[in-house]
Design goal:
The complex is a heterodimer of chains A (about 775) and B (about 140).
Chain A (H helix, E strand, L loop, with lengths): L1 H30 L4 H20 L3 H18 L7 H24 L8 H24 L24 H4 L3 H8 L4 H12 L6 H7 L5 H19 L6 H28 L2 H24 L1 E3 L1 H4 L2 H11 L4 E6 L4 E3 H22 L3 H6 L6 E10 L2 E8 L6 H10 L13 H5 L23 H10 L3 E7 L3 E9 L4 E9 L2 E6 L3 E7 L7 E3 L2 E6 L2 E7 H4 L10 E8 L2 E7 L1 E9 L5 H4 L4 E6 L5 E5 L1 H29 L4 E7 L2 E6 L5 E6 L4 E3 L2 E6 L2 E7 H4 L11 E9 L2 E7 L1 E7 L6 E2 L5 E7 L2 E6 L1 H8 L9 H7 L1
Parallel strand pairs in A: 2-4, 9-18, 13-15, 20-30, 24-26
Antiparallel strand pairs in A: 1-3, 4-5, 5-7, 6-7, 8-9, 8-16, 10-14, 11-12, 12-13, 14-15, 17-18, 19-20, 19-27, 21-25, 22-23, 23-24, 25-26, 28-29, 29-30
Helix pairs in contact in A: 1-2, 1-4, 2-3, 3-4, 3-5, 4-5, 7-10, 11-12, 14-15, 15-19
Chain B lengths: L2 E9 L2 E6 L3 E7 L3 E2 L9 E5 L2 E7 H4 L11 E6 L6 E5 L1 E9 L3 E2 L8 H5 E6 L4 E5 L7 H5 L1
Parallel strand pairs in B: 2-12, 6-8
Antiparallel strand pairs in B: 1-2, 1-9, 3-7, 4-5, 5-6, 7-8, 10-11, 11-12
């Protein structure tokens, strides 16, 4: 019975492949109802399933496949037109076949899967078709008789244990093309086969004297090239590949150890051999990696059906466009991406794309477009799901986030549009006005995010109101082997994925040094402040000194920060080993690896560290504000944010500062005579302190401008400075009152003359109405 | 009479045992990688022929202070649920064949973290062996929460 089990396994595997193909073909057939090629292909595939299931004595499966086949043969013969209803029926049949196969896979028999309903549906469909055809025949008696034979298409898809059979061109077709045999002879030979003649088509033709032996053998040869291509590929168990990959990983380690040992001995012959071994190992590793790569098409192939079913059930029109389906990904990653991607596609059809009426009203084509796009991008694969629908409603998301307690109302005005949109990835979050059976239950987007992050990827969303939404998955090329930097921290060695590393800076304490903005370590990277995370502190170890250390400038989650480590050793390829969830939950480690010396090394989770750096900065800001308030209360001098404006130093009381931001220069737009930027869904007016204070000078170089954001209630303005210098305590010494407009005075801060900004004036210069709402009462009194 | 085989080991001079079929192997190892911020019971990893294994300190699981990490440490590698896990112990004992009639339920006076891990008491010659639940004993979320 072992053999039969294997045959069943192969049958299941092959049938699943066939079913996926049938799904795709059926959806395509709906677009192109007259394609005989498609009908024949579907017919052949179903016939194969029917044949094999008969052979393996899966009676119900055979019956169901037979029903589907009968309907298809009517379509093929032109006895019945291809309508959406027939396609739906056929798809239902395929689903029935799928559930039977699933039952067989699970229990080894057909279980209690009900096929009668599906068969009844098919029969009803055929009756309806006959009625239609009869009516048609009555009006045009000569046309479209069911007998109209298309024998060439009717290929004897015998129970074929090998899918290669399907890809071969039918011998009858080749024979007719070459003129070696008459079309009707092939037809009758086929009929014989269907009636149970076990002989091969060529044999029947030969034995009946319908074809010349030479013609048949020529036709057989014409078939073979295809076969040789198919034969050159074999199926391999993925577990076997995984084992091979693991072993290659070990081999890489062993090689590294060997090479190190050989270098110490210094024997020239040995060194050469070791180098040769190294090269072979690298190639082997590359080869094994390649075997695991599969085009993303594999997981996309199910999506046309998903989109079709869903859009039909919702009375929407959606065209699915796929770009870059040949983009390859590691198999295990493909598996991990499949469900999140399906969810995003369903979500886009359900919520993204509007109904045809809404679309027409919005001046768009009634048919929406859903674009799947995959491409390589800097060591990653990006997969996008883009719709041209209504876009995300940022206000609603913000409102919902507040309702769910995820955000405080006062945070909203300060947040970037994209940050607000990212709230949809929070658990239990859904902005769908109504919950459908498709989506909107608030389970999903957070799962998408978790799944993608589990494989070291990232999810983001961007949306333009009225134009559509783009969901973007960034996925590592492979899980198994990554380029990494090894670093020392304390007496342990850690591994940082190289994709996250932008540059390295050595801190000698002289020309380069770590500075502290009120306790928060920062580094001036080409004039800009880079927030720093001390790895030893993050890991809860003893905190070391600031000299002779390295800063790794890292980027993750759209944030840039510096990671302070003791030593950077070298880059190497490491084999990533999964880490037990109890360590993953710590939120600092993405995995583990075996280092060259055989010890386990922890791979740092750069995204988590980035989030940590952000949190630290935020809480640091909170502290600054609290400290500032406290000191103000006690009257012992206030904290000042010292900025550079041209040649001058201008100080702004820190408690009036809501946020420090940098904007790309090109984001500055003009509204009337004012400069504005779009900021967290608001229009933020800018005022350049250099203009206000008359400090005209060279415009600072660079693509970004530094601004100090000041908010009160729902209003915000931004003061543009050349750069942020420092945060200082105002000692209230050597202070003079202002002689100049826009300033409240000057003071000596950090041994330098610093001007104190008249914040109120500066804000009014940016937005004359800033205080209008807030101070109506005062005005009334004054009036 | 039905009998079971137990692999025995000592922690803090108490003899413990797990059923032999749950044990993959026993080995002494001295190169561990500490995992900062991990729960104290499972703060170390090591390389077992290319596999990353988490070492669970049985002392911590039993509510005792962690074991000092200097020098070689004995590991009982349990097969676990898919991933093998190591149980760090003081000393390895022998494999014993125990008849079911030497079995008794844990004494009522046994309390604290140990009680949850012990499934039974076996009366050996001159000393008692506490049989541990091989799944619970490496479940670190239990001990730390």
């Amino acid at each position: 019975m072992e053999d039969l089990g294997e045959i069943v396994g192969e049958f299941l595997l092959e049938s699943h492949e066939n079913l996926d193909q049938i799904d795709r073909d059926l959806v395509q057939l709906e677009q192109d109802p007259h394609s005989r090629d498609l009908i024949s292909r579907i017919f052949r595939a179903i016939h194969t399933i029917k044949g094999t299931s008969g052979f393996l004595a899966f009676g119900r499966l055979e019956k169901l496949a037979h029903a589907g086949e009968s309907l298809l043969s009517k379509l093929r013969d032109g006895a019945q037109p291809v309508t959406p209803a027939t396609i739906t029926t056929l798809l239902a049949t395929i689903d029935g076949v799928r559930s039977l196969l699933a039952a067989i896979e699970e229990t080894g028999n057909e279980g209690d899967v009900d096929v009668d309903a599906a068969i009844a549906q098919v029969n009803a469909q055929m009756k309806a078709g006959e009625a239609g055809a009869a009516a048609e025949a009555a009006s045009a008696p000569v046309a479209a008789a069911p007998e109209t034979p298309e024998p060439l298409e009717e290929v004897p898809a015998r129970p074929a244990p090998n899918p290669v059979e399907n890809q071969r061109r039918p011998i009858g077709e080749i024979l007719v093309e070459s003129g070696g045999v008459q079309a009707q002879d092939v037809g009758s030979a086929l009929a014989q086969q269907i009636e149970g003649d076990e002989r091969k088509l060529g044999t029947i033709l030969l034995e009946e004297g319908k074809a010349q032996p030479a013609a048949v053998s020529e036709a057989l040869q014409a078939q073979t090239p295809k076969r040789s291509i198919a034969d050159s590929a074999i199926r391999v168990d993925v577990d076997l590949l995984d084992t091979l990959l693991n072993m290659v990983g070990e081999l890489v380690l062993a090689r590294n150890q060997l090479v190190r040992g050989v270098m110490e001995i210094g024997d020239a012959t040995l060194v050469r051999s070791a180098q040769r071994l190294g090269m072979i190992t690298s190639e082997l590793q590359e080869g094994i990696m390649k075997t695991r790569m599969q085009p993303i098409e594999h997981i996309w192939s199910k999506l046309p059906r998903v989109v079709r079913d869903l859009s039909n059930s919702m009375d929407k029109k959606v065209q699915l466009v796929m770009e870059g389906k040949e983009t390859e990904l590691d198999r295990s990653l493909l598996e991990a991406v499949k469900d999140p991607l399906t969810h995003l596609v369903r979500n886009a059809v359900d919520h993204g794309i509007e109904s045809p009426d809404q679309r027409t009203a919005a001046g768009k084509t009634p048919e929406g477009t859903l674009t799947l796009r995959a491409y390589h991008e800097g060591g990653h694969v990006a997969v996008e799901v883009a719709d041209d629908g209504a876009g995300l409603n940022v206000d609603r998301i913000a409102q919902k986030a507040v309702e769910n307690g995820l955000l405080r109302p006062d945070q909203i005005p300060m947040m970037d549009r994209r940050d607000i949109m990212a709230m949809v990835f929070q658990p239990g979050f859904s902005t769908a006005a109504k919950v459908t059976n498709v989506s909107g239950r608030g389970v999903g987007m957070d799962v998408v995010k978790t799944n993608i992050e589990n494989i070291g990827g990232a999810v983001s969303v961007d949306s333009t109101p009225g134009k559509g939404t783009v969901w973007r998955l960034t996925i590592p090329l492979t899980l198994a082997i990554i380029q990494a930097l090894t670093v020392d921290c304390g007496d342990q060695r850690y591994v940082v994925p190289q994709v996250a590393v932008l540059e390295l800076v050595f801190i000698d304490g002289q020309s380069t040094k770590i500075e502290y903005a009120s306790g928060a370590p920062v580094y001036r990277l080409r004039g800009k402040l880079l927030p720093l995370v001390r790895l030893d502190r993050a890991l809860g170890l003893d905190v070391g000194g600031d000299h002779g250390v390295y800063i790794m400038v890292l980027q993750a989650d759209g944030r840039r920060f510096g990671l302070v480590v003791d030593r950077v050793l070298n880059t190497e390829e490491v084999v990533v080993k999964a880490l037990n969830s109890r360590f993953k939950d710590i939120g600092l480690y993405a995995g583990a690896t075996i280092l060259g010396d055989g010890k386990v090394g922890l791979i740092l989770d750069v995204s988590s560290l980035a989030r940590r750096s952000h949190l630290a900065v935020d809480s640091e800001r909170g502290n600054i504000a609290a400290a500032a308030r406290a000191s103000e209360g006690s009257g012992t001098g206030e904290r000042l944010l010292v900025t550079a404006v041209g040649e001058r130093r201008v100080a702004i009381p820190l408690d009036t500062v809501t946020r420090l931001e940098e904007f790309p220069r090109e984001r500055i737009e003009h509204a009337g005579s004012r400069e504005v930027v779009q900021y967290r869904g608001q229009i933020l007016p800018l005022v350049r302190l250099s203009h206000l204070l008359g400090a005209y000078g060279e415009e600072p170089e660079g693509d970004t401008v530094s601004v100090v954001v000041y908010s009160e209630g729902a209003r915000s303005v931004a003061l543009v400075v050349d750069r942020i210098v420092d945060i200082a305590e105002n000692s209230r010494t050597a202070r003079r009152d202002a002689e100049e407009d826009g300033l409240v005075g000057t003071a000596v801060i950090q041994q330098r003359v610093t001007e104190l900004l008249d914040v109120r004036r500066a804000i009014l210069a940016a937005d004359p109405n800033f205080y209008a709402d807030l101070e109506t009462d005062d005005l009334l009194v004054e009036a | 009479m039905a009998s079971r085989q137990f692999a025995t080991f000592e922690v803090a001079n108490q003899l413990f045992g797990v059923e032999v079929h749950t044990v993959q192997e026993v080995l002494s190892y001295n190169e561990y990688t500490p995992v900062p911020l991990a729960p104290p019971a499972v703060s170390r990893l090591f390389n077992l022929r290319g596999q990353v294994i988490a070492a669970v300190d049985l002392r911590v699981q039993l509510g005792l202070p962690p074991k000092a990490t200097e020098g070689p440490v004995m590991n009982v590698i349990l097969r676990g649920d898919g991933d093998p896990v190591s149980l760090v112990v003081d000393r390895i004992g022998e494999v014993v064949d125990l008849d079911d009639d030497t079995f008794e339920h844990p004494p009522d006076t046994l309390s604290g973290p140990t009680r949850e891990l012990v499934v039974g008491t076996f009366k050996l010659d001159g000393r008692l062996m506490l049989a541990l639940d091989a799944t619970l004993v490496v479940d670190t979320s239990r001990a730390t929460t």
